[in-house]
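Case 307 in the screening queue. Each case pairs one protein sequence with one candidate compound; here the compound is zinc ion. For every case the pipeline is the same: read the inputs, emit a complex structure as tokens, and attach any notable structural observations.

Predict complex for case 307.
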Amino acid sequence: MSTIRNEMERFFQKTNMVSTYKPMFLKTLLDLGDFKENEGSQWVQDDGKNLEVNLNFVAVRFIYYCHPLFFKFKLKQQFGIMTVLSYKIFEEFDVFNVKNKVSKAEFSKDKYQDARTRLIKDGLDKTVFKLLLKDCNIYTRTKPYTFIISKDNVTYLKEHKNQLRKALNHELSLFLGRFNNSPDIPGKLEEVQKRPSLNTADSLENVRIAESRCFYCNEEGTKFAQDHFIPWNYLYTTEKYNMVPACTSCNSSKHDKLAIPKFLKLIIDRNNKLELSPGYSESFMKSQWENCRINYHGENEPLWKNA
Ligand SMILES: [Zn+2]
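Case 307 output:
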């Protein structure tokens, strides 16, 4: 009999991916050993030896993982013009139009039921649920939209959760990296990522070089936010070359948008006055800005300028 260990190994050796669905599905199962009460427990029955799991449990997590990829990081999930179903659902159902990160508990609520049902019916059940068994036979399909997984397998998934999550994220990164020009995709796939602040000395130096004026509107001030010139959600790193002092008004109005070329020129001039790491150059800055415009901001979207 084949063990779950061998099955997982088989998955990583042979997976043929046309979308992110397979590793995403497996990633959702890593939660089976230690989910919280309100995070979909109603869809998991324990008979002592096995868990019987309704696909709603998977759908909640699927949505949870795909939501930031779509809304926050704007990463395509598939080659070409085809859009994966989860993205279509985000556009179709108004409930998803939320700015901040949404929890698994929230996506387990009734108001998401229609969206979950559509994802299950037209996406998970039709394609990945059955197909995945060929690559990785760790559960049995039972009633419609339900599967059985042994508690031994669940224990294995729980005990190896961190390694498996990293390995699955690696598969996802490789796949997404083939058609997304976006920095640090592995970092973007991690669930929790804190936005680091610029250190105090560098912040003070930036303010001093700007002569205590807002980088965008030139207003003099005493307190500034450190703005990510190329949006954090694209660059996903806090580097001195990309940080500028901004007044509250400019900072909140710019948010995660990309600024007009005038400011690109200004930041390049500003950066000439700073001591930066050897990796920095004017052409590097220009290409980061241009890549962000095409791959994150949107080629046809108007760029941000201060009022
Ligand atoms: Zn300003």
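Case 307 observations:
- Strands lie at 44-46, 50-54, 140-141, 146-150, 225-228, 243-246.
- The CA atoms of residues 268 and 281 lie 9 Å apart.
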